[in-house]
């Protein structure tokens, strides 16, 4: 039920972290990949890894906040593969600061990448899925859509707001597009090591000690531990599941 052989998946923010891990997981299940990110060099490295697994992959330099780049990228994907079965909206950023310290520029940067980026990519993918009468859209939200933290290192009000918006947007899309055979769900990761966290949260022993004490799993997530949830939402195993969010946080949100 989790097999993706022959499916075409578009992954944004695929150059590193959770996006890269998910792209490799898709490839191992037989999907062909269209990789989108701003750093083309890293995408091309990943493309080689994916092709070594025996599937097809293309890399496209794309800033998800720029509509012309998104439109061109999706057009290229359709020319190359003919269809798009899966869209993983993974591109995202986290900007530290509360509303009393955030600049308007930083607030807009968070919203543009984390929310507008999903809107723009979906804007050009959804019509393709509607014509196919089939599609799986997975939007990456965050545990910070649900939980906040007063610890200075974790105050990110624009991140809280933008990731909560991802859940709301996913529900709206799910309600509208289910009639076209399209499911839309979101995933809320807890603390995973990535470029976004390795130079801040993972370097703070004080923060990790506190996190491990609060989290029932007594540890942050390991690389790859988000892949199962993403594959579930991307496959026909979730054919009757839409408008939902799954929290992958080692139990942090239940205590």
What does it look like?
InterPro entries: NAD(P)-bd_dom_sf, Sc_DH/Rdtase_CS, SDR_fam. This is SDR family oxidoreductase. It comes from Clostridium paridis. It is a single chain. The chain has 255 residues and is α/β, with parallel strands linked by helices. It has a single domain (8-192, 222-254), classed as NAD(P)-binding Rossmann-like Domain (Rossmann fold). Helix content is 42%, strand content 15%. It contains seven helices and seven strands, in the order E-H-E-H-E-H-E-H-E-H-E-H-H-E. The chain has helices at residues 17-28, 40-51, 67-81, 104-132, 157-177, 205-214, 227-234; strands spanning 8-12, 32-37, 57-61, 86-89, 135-140, 182-189, 245-248. The chain has a seven-stranded parallel sheet, sandwiched between helices. The mean pLDDT is 94.
Kindly list the characteristics that best describe this protein.
255 residues; alpha/beta; Rossmann fold; 7-stranded parallel sheet; 7 helices; 7 strands; 42% helix; SDR_fam; Sc_DH/Rdtase_CS
CATH architecture descriptor name: 3-Layer(aba) Sandwich
Helix content range:
40-55%
CATH topology grouping: Rossmann fold
Number of domains: 1
Name the CATH class: Alpha Beta
The fraction of residues assigned to DSSP E strands is 5-15%
Alpha-beta classification: alpha/beta
| Number of DSSP E strands | 7
Rg over CA atoms, rounded to whole Å, is 17 Å
- With strands numbered from the N-terminus, the spatial order across the biggest sheet is 3-2-1-4-5-6-7
Total of DSSP H or I helical runs spanning 4+ residues:
7
What summary fits the major beta sheet?
7 strands, parallel
Low-confidence stretches: none
CATH superfamily: NAD(P)-binding Rossmann-like Domain
What sort of overall outline do the alpha carbons produce when their principal axes are compared? globular
Provide mean pLDDT, rounded: 94
């Amino acid at each position: 039920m989790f097999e993706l052989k022959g499916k075409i998946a578009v992954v944004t923010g695929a150059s590193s972290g959770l996006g890269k891990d998910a792209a490799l997981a898709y490839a191992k299940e037989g999907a062909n990949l269209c990789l989108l990110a701003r750093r083309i060099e890293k995408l091309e490295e990943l493309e080689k890894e994916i092709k070594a697994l025996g599937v097809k992959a293309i890399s496209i330099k794309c800033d998800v906040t720029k509509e012309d780049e998104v439109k061109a990228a999706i057009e290229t994907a359709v020319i190359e593969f003919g269809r798009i079965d899966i869209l993983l909206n993974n591109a995202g950023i986290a900007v530290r600061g509360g509303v009393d310290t955030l600049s308007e520029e930083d607030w807009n940067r968070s919203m543009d990448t984390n929310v507008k980026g999903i809107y723009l990519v979906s804007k050009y993918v959804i019509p393709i899925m509607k014509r196919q009468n089939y599609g799986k859209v997975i939007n990456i939200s965050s545990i910070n859509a649900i939980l906040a933290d007063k610890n200075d290192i974790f105050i990110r009000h624009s991140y809280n707001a933008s990731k909560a918006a991802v859940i709301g947007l996913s529900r709206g899309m799910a309600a509208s597009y289910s009639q076209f055979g399209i499911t839309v769900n979101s995933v809320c990761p807890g603390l995973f090591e990535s470029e976004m966290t390795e130079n801040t949260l993972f370097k703070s022993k004080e923060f990790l000690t506190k996190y491990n004490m609060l989290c029932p799993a007594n540890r942050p997530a390991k690389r790859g531990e988000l892949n199962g949830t993403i594959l579930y939402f991307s496959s026909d195993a979730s054919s009757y599941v839409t408008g939902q969010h799954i929290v992958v946080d080692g139990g942090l949100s239940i205590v």
